[in-house]
């Protein structure tokens, strides 16, 4: 057989039944990505005779004698205009979808460009919100040019990996070749709750190519949590690498290790597992009831489980003042119960990794993670290995959103590598991502609120029930966070909280962008709006009268043991003003019939910029002989933009340009420690470590030059890649060579402990139209104002806000994991789970408050997580304003809206 790939002939024959995607990757074309293997996401797009196709759907033999173009061959030996357009517009974040997106965009004719919603419906981006992709198609440049040395911070500089991303050269987890690689496939439980009585491996081991079948009998008897935090006590110890009790449909039962995926899959089918079926419970209310099946009967407070016999993994209760009395004496009150659904992270790169033991006996794990250092520590503990004998690292990560602040595959990878002595690979399918990793916590939130006649809040009460699923990863911290900033942003003398996280026999919930706040804000912000309506006060004014301001305590019961949160900067009222002015500004009137009802709604959010109890980051920077710098940080890049901002911070502190900063990151072999890129800490904490390291090196540079000049270091400054003192000037390259002659290299380190913490603010506004006859919802205007302190990179920060709004709109309008009465997920693929595509996402106007944070690096603070938080709440308020009906369950799908609309307005 003959194939032409990127203009070159290939004679390799594909295997029987092999798809074009895997065939191309085996030939080294790693720009062809796997996002779904079902033709739903477009990450595997290639051009076949010039037409874009999903290569996962094309049998490889059908491409014989046809011209195949992958992203690596699009520009020939140079850069294709569309690749350059994506660079100019920075039309990517994590970049995992970018190769496929560029190939589709490059193939569009002028007619197709007039309807991008239809033209791009086969390509999903989970990160950007699509505006920057449209900018690329429109030929817009979003990048600042000619940034002077020392002037990088605060400018819209491009991502350092951009050229590799658009050309398909950026290396993600599986974009590598390893000799002797074995493949892992997992046998998963078909039952929601069962004890494994026996496993017969005979037939599986007889499959040619199978090298091992690993079960609960092969794993260390060690309990841990898949959640990764700096402090292990934040999560319950309730998980084993492989267990003899399964607690949800999809839990891993055994791992088959074989020479090929096909052999491993065949062996999985032949493994004979005998189960003793146990009673199961999938409803959290029923799980707490007397006589309910106990899911973790042997767990106690020593395992950090609050009340195992009632399936309660975590709970919190407290009251300030007297809420009942305050409600009884309020001029107006509101009470309601709200429910939020289970949502999937849907990062386009699924969980997975490779592991091997090198000649020095070091266990190497290359994985798609947000927390390489914490994962190394966990593997060291579980397998009783010295820390210096475990290395965990990632190259570029294809999206995270909190879902990769977990250890779902690295333990199995380590086990298989240690047992077989061979390099191993485990890559989850899209279905496994749905049924066996983690989700957002579904919650039931009951709220009571009261206000006096002047619109001042008199009482706030939250009663929260969180469904953590079969395991308690992140159950406590998410629960505590959900009831913290959601009401501590409001001044109110009487507050009460009762919140419980409950085990059920369903897929576990875990960390997800916003970390509990999106769920409770739907209820809290609805209550604020309902009080305002009763009093005849605008939604903006009632919030202005009640939000905390500098000097006010930020309180939610029970009292926190952590008292390190401060107003590093305060821009909340600015954000309210910005959104109000933007929403009042003239806009084109929609051409809609009388069946459409118009409304507006807002919601606000406050978020602590770092998790409590410690978040550590180390950074190191060294001067090279050519005058450039090596910057080493531990934080991972998965579209959060930390790689860009770390270079900006270092370049500004060292009076150089970002192209002189060579970044090494997310590898435990580099030394130091980094808690991880989560909890809004990638810039706020790790960025401070980078700033400290760069400023320490700046002092070393001045001291070294002063020693050479025999002058006072205080008389020296850094200017444009040199040390200057009066008329004397020594370039960094000259200085490096000077100290090198003495056998030295100039370098410095920096550290940040994540305390004190600051707060970030966001306000979201929507104008919507709701069709009273069908329930259809249109978003006519979307505005978000953000207090991000000094904005480190305006283009990038705007993209984080847009992406957060787009992702949150998916959850607000249609995303929902549907679980049947047995605990089985019935829509475990993209085509049955509606991810936002280009046509679904409105353009969001992003406005920044003018503040400077006294705690964050160079005045900046976090803005990758918080934009998500107020979206569902604001949309719910807009729908209520339009229809006069308060809808209390997300997502706000047409079929959810229709019954109430029909009851009120008829047909």
Question: Could you please describe the fold and organization of this structure?
Answer:
This protein starts with a strand and ends with a helix. It is α+β, with helices and mostly antiparallel strands and 907 residues long. Helix content is 27%, strand content 21%. The mean pLDDT is 97. It has 26 helices and 31 strands. The strands form seven sheets. A seven-stranded mixed sheet has the order 8-10-6-17-14-15-16, sandwiched between helices. Strands 2-1-5-3-4 form a five-stranded mixed sheet. A five-stranded mixed sheet has the order 12-20-19-18-13. Belongs to the xanthine dehydrogenase family. It holds the Pfam family MoCoBD_1.
Quick tags:
907 residues, alpha+beta, Ubiquitin-like (UB roll), Aldehyde Oxidoreductase, domain 3, Aldehyde Oxidoreductase, domain 4, 31 strands
Please, what is the CATH homologous superfamily of the largest domain? Aldehyde oxidase/xanthine dehydrogenase, a/b hammerhead
Helix content: 25-40%
Average pLDDT taken over every residue: 97
The largest pleated sheet is described as: 7 strands, mixed
How many domains, in number, for the residues?
4
Amino-to-carboxy terminus distance: 62 Å
Biggest sheet, spatial arrangement of strands: 8-10-6-17-14-15-16
Query: Could you name the ranges where pLDDT drops below 50 across 5 or more consecutive residues?
Result: none
Indicate the proportion of strand residues: 15-25%
Shape field: globular
Helix segment tally: 26
- CATH top-level class of the largest domain: Alpha Beta
Q: What is the gyration radius calculated from CA atoms?
A: 28 Å
CATH architecture of the largest domain: Alpha-Beta Complex
Structural class, by secondary structure, is alpha+beta
**Strand tally, please?**
31
- What is the CATH third-level topology name of the largest domain? Aldehyde Oxidoreductase, domain 3
InterPro entries: 2Fe-2S-bd, 2Fe-2S-bd_dom_sf, 2Fe-2S_ferredoxin-like_sf, 2Fe-2S_ferredoxin-type, 2Fe2S_fd_BS, Ald_Oxase/Xan_DH_a/b, Ald_Oxase/Xan_DH_a/b_sf, Ald_Oxase/xanthine_DH-like
Protein name: Dehydrogenase
Pfam families: Ald_Xan_dh_C (PF01315), Fer2 (PF00111), Fer2_2 (PF01799), MoCoBD_1 (PF02738), MoCoBD_2 (PF20256)
Organism: Bradyrhizobium iriomotense
